[in-house]
Amino acid sequence: MPQHLDIDEIQDHDPIKITKKKAKDAYSQIKAPLIVNDAFWSIPALNGFTGGYMKDITEWFDAQDFINLMRDKRDKSILITDCIVYVDEDGMKVFSKKISCEFTLQPKGEGNSIEKVVVLNGKTLAEYHGDGELSEKPNELIYYEFAKWYSHKK
């Protein structure tokens, strides 16, 4: 069952380091097995911006701000790193996956600012959410790898 905890997020360029720290801090609060999932966005044309700052940036920037940043860039790629960290009394297990997407200069769908301008497999992430679809096939999701591992753990 999801829980919202008051955890300070460290600022770092390493997405796995951030997620591991959040998981460790959460475990110290609830003292029960848990998973923490986080995503980090890296735009090569902007020297890896936004990295671990995505949550704040999507609150500050609207879709047009991202379009303005990317308009004159030849490289319109964006790399999403999806991380899951599982913690229990035996330790910590990390799962990480990189997803290659690209920017469009035409926002589509409903969602946060960047979801409207990031395209994966022909649709913006916001369009997937609005249509009630997954942006990846179920067996390509990071949770699939976690579930395979966890089923053998028990």
Total helical elements = 5
**CATH architecture verdict:** Alpha-Beta Complex
Number of domains: 1
The CATH topology is: Maf protein
Largest beta sheet: what is the strand line-up? 2-1-3-4-5-6
Measured on Cα atoms, how large is the radius of gyration? 17 Å
Mean pLDDT: 92
Summarize the structure in words.
The chain has 154 residues and is an alpha+beta fold. It has a single domain, classed as Maf protein (Alpha-Beta Complex), CATH 3.90.950.10. Helices cover 32% and strands 28% of the residues. A six-stranded antiparallel beta sheet has the order 2-1-3-4-5-6. A hairpin with a 2-residue loop joins strand 3 and strand 4.
Give a quick rundown of the structure.
The chain is of the alpha+beta class and 154 residues long. It contains five helices and six strands, in the order H-E-E-H-H-E-E-E-E-H-H. The model has no long low-confidence stretch (mean pLDDT 92).
Describe the secondary-structure layout.
Elements: H1 15-30, E1 34-43, E2 49-51, H2 54-60, H3 63-70, E3 77-88, E4 91-103, E5 118-120, E6 123-124, H4 125-130, H5 142-153
Antiparallel strand pairs: 1-2, 1-3, 3-4, 4-5, 5-6
Keywords:
single chain; Maf protein; 6-stranded antiparallel sheet; 154 residues; alpha+beta; 28% strand
